[in-house]
Amino acid sequence: MLHPITTVHYLLLSAALLLVGTIGVLTRRNVVIILMSIELILNAVNINLIAFSRYFGDVTGQIFAIFVIAVAVAEAAVGLGILIALFRNKETVWADEIELLKW
To answer: pLDDT (tens digit, 9 = 90+) per residue, 17-42?
Structure first.
């Protein structure tokens, strides 16, 4: 007998993505992996928004998810541009070695 996929399943998936993303942000030193971990966190938020939108029968969560996707695209573009500029100047992508903003 197959069990239907419920809102709880989506929330567990979202919690797992949030956990992996948070661990990636806190433990990794590579800036590219940190940016990908932030994207995982934003995807976890999107899954929550859409799951609750479907649960309550309202499209507000889906509209917010579209805004989160737009912010994620802008963050990825700006972050990648900054990362390319830093790599050209410092020749590294390790977060520990980037001391540009220190006095």
So the answer is: 999 999 999 999 999 999 999 999 99
Predicted TM-score (pTM) of this structure: 0.87
The reply to whether 101 falls in a domain is: no
- The torsion angle over the Cα atoms of residues 88, 92, 94 and 100, rounded to 10 degrees, is -60
Residue 103 DSSP SS3? coil
Rounded to whole angstroms, the Cα distance separating 12 from 23 reads 16
Which two three-digit tokens encode residue 37?
């971990």
DSSP, residue by residue, 69-98: HHHHHHHHHHHHHHHHHHHHHHS--BGGG-
* CATH assignment of the domain containing 17: 1.10.287.3510
